[in-house]
Structure formats: structure tokens, C-alpha cells
Amino acid sequence: MGCRGIRIPGRNNCLAHLAPAHRTAYLGTLSAGADIDHRSTPFTHRLLAELLNALRDQTTSLPIIDRARFDGARFDGEADFADATFNGPAEFDGALFTDYGRFKAAHFESTSSFAGVQFSEASFENAVFVSATRFMHAKFQYDSRFMRAQFSDLAIFVMARFGGVVSFEGSVFTEARFSGTRFENIADFSNATFSRTSNLGPFVCASLVYLEGAVFEAPVTLEIAASTVYCAGTRWEHRAELRLRYADLDLRYAVLSAPTAVTFHAVP
Fold it and tell me: What is the dihedral of CA 106, 94, 134, 150, to 10 degrees?
């Protein structure tokens, strides 16, 4: 009663509320490369592990999914998608991760969408995004790790929030970690908020980095190699240093509330 989870075909309940025998039967129908639809389903760490175990490739022992629909799902406990391959669209719009969302070294071969997702803590280290990906309106309460991730198409972080409300006394220090990240197309952080990020980068972008309207609420150093960095209307509420390589820089209407330096990054 009251569960919004999508029903399993042929059953009246979502995966979380199936009788054990019915759940076992359903998982037995899955194999590597299957489509799955578990929108609005509540997952525990154990239930997600059971689902992903049913999707593991017999040769590599790694999960392989075609289209994955987790829109509105709730993940209680660690949600471990590390090393998973998503061959079709991966849809997590509006999902809630109350603990650690692990997508380390995951491969997204098609489009992926995390719009409006709420993460307690997230790791996308070494993840590969072949097609466009969206993190617009996503919220990362604590650390968000994208170190050495590769984005081959559009990477959209419009209106994302990295870190909770700033409190320099008694607050957990949080970071948006993009060290070694590679963007081969546009990296769009327009109107994003960085609450406790002290270093953004170093990362490289073969195209444009948009920081228009973004807000940096703590002292920060940006290290970026890119074609162009757009900071029109960007607001820095504390000291900032922009260490850039190659890039044209647009600072029209930017708000600089403290001493700000723009320097040339002399080494790759």
C-alpha cells in the first residue's frame, strides 16, 4: 500500500515487495544485457546486489545492462554500480541515494541522466560517458568524485549543487573533485553552486567550459585547460584564483567579492 514502485511484469508488486519465491523467479529470468525497469522502487544494499548479480556477465563477472530505468528510485545503504556497463540509456532522474552511490569505472555507452538526483556521497572516478550525460539540478551533499572520468559528449551540470549549506564551524568539509577529468565536448556548469569546493580541477576540456552564473561560496582555485572558459555573471564570494591554460576567458558581469587572480598555467 502506498508504494510507487513499478510493478514486475505479471505481478502486483515492485521488486522490493515481491514474495521471496517470486523475486527469485524474476531474477532468474535476467541475464547480462537485459533491460530493467525499477522506477520508484526502494532498494536496500542487499536487494540491489541481488539484482546486479543476476545481470553479471559469465566471462567478466561484471554487470551488463541494456536500458536501465531507475527514475525516482530510493537507494538505502551503499548503492554499488562500480564497473557496471550500461549499453542502453541509463535513467536515474529524481533518484535518492541516502548513502554512498558508487559508479567507479562504470561505462555509459548511451545517454545517461541523473537530473534532480540527490546524492549523500558519490563516486564516478574513472567512469566513461560515451554519449551526452545530464546532472542538471543534481545535489551532492558531501564529496562528489569525478577524478579521471571521461566525457566524450555533452556534460551538463546546470544548476547542480555541490555540498550543503556553507558553515565554516562544525561543518563537514566537502569537495567537488574533478582532478584529471577529460571533457571532449562542452562542460556546462551554468548556475551551479559550489558550497565548499576549494579546488576545481585540474581538468581539460577540448571545447567550452561554461561557468555562467555559477556561485563559489568558499575560497577556491580553478585549474582548467580549455578552448574557452565562460564566467559571465559568475560570483565568487571569497578569494579565488583561476589558473588557465590555452583558454580565452569571459568575465563580463562577474562578481568578485575578494582578491581574485587570473594566471597562466605554464605546464600541461
Answer: -20
> Cα 37 from chain centroid?
20
C-alpha cell at 23: 523475486
Low-confidence ranges of the chain (pLDDT < 70): 1, 164-173
Q: Which residue in 156, 81, 143, 147 sits closest to 114, CA to CA?
A: 156
**Other CB atoms within 10 A of residue 265 CB:** 16
d(CA 127, CA 114): 14
> Which of 211, 227, 223 lies closest to 261 in space, CA to CA?
223
Q: How many C-alpha atoms does 221 have within 13 Å on its Cβ side?
A: 9
How far from each other are the two terminal CA atoms of the chain, in whole angstroms? 58
CB atoms inside a 10 Å sphere around CB 227: 13
- What's the chain's average pLDDT? 93
Give this prediction's pTM: 0.92
∠ Cα 96 172 163 (to 5°): 45
Nearest to 85 by CA among 32, 44, 155: 32
What Å distances lie between residue 34 and 113, 220, 244, CA to CA? 19, 44, 44
